[in-house]
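Late entry, zinc ion complex.
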Amino acid sequence: MSSPIPPNAVALGHAVVVVDVQRDFCPGGSLAVPDGDRIFPTVNRWVRTFQAAGLPVVFTQDHHPPRHISFHERGGPWPPHCVQGTSGAAIHPAIWVPVGAVRFYKGEDPDRDAYSGFEGRLYDPREPDRRGPDLASWLREAGIHHLYVLGLATDYCVRATALDAIRAGFAVSVVEAGVRGVDRNPGDSERALAELAAAGVERL
Ligand code: VGL
Ligand code: ZN
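Prediction complete; structure with ligand written out below:
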């Protein structure tokens, strides 16, 4: 199966970032990533380990309004997915979301696409109509300097999130057993991982 979590990953100043493991990106969803469900055990293991160590667990979520600019009906590349208020926008039920995990919503502007979690803003269930700080601000405030990134899709939101994290000055590791890609063009995911490595991301 997948490789164990290196002990030095579980340390003060480190956080796990789970990108867009939502129903619509998993098998059966409207924009299913092939084998997207194969990452579930790895994701749950990293989430459980970081949660148990008292380290931050961050989830990003695509959270589009109906008729978002990225949808076919508006000339975009994608079928409707992760529409606000639909079951497809929910984190997949096989993923463990611990109490205390934080969520960052992105793609909420109807006229602008946003692949990177760093374009997301904190969602607080006590104030569901407001948004909090952006991801970089929140992580810095929490004293985080190293991110372990998992999720969907390798060639879109994982790629964009990891690149933005490097640009924002974080150390970044991508957990390969914990990511899967769309591969609209064969090889997109492998090319994305190579690009991340060239940008300074550790391939774990
Ligand atoms: C994503 C396509 C469209 C992703 C989001 O999460 O990778 N891909 N919107
Ligand atoms: Zn989207």
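The pocket of pyrazine-2-carboxylic acid (ligand 1) is lined by residues 20, 25, 62, 70, 78, 115, 152-153, 156-157 (CB under 6 Å). Will revisit in the morning.
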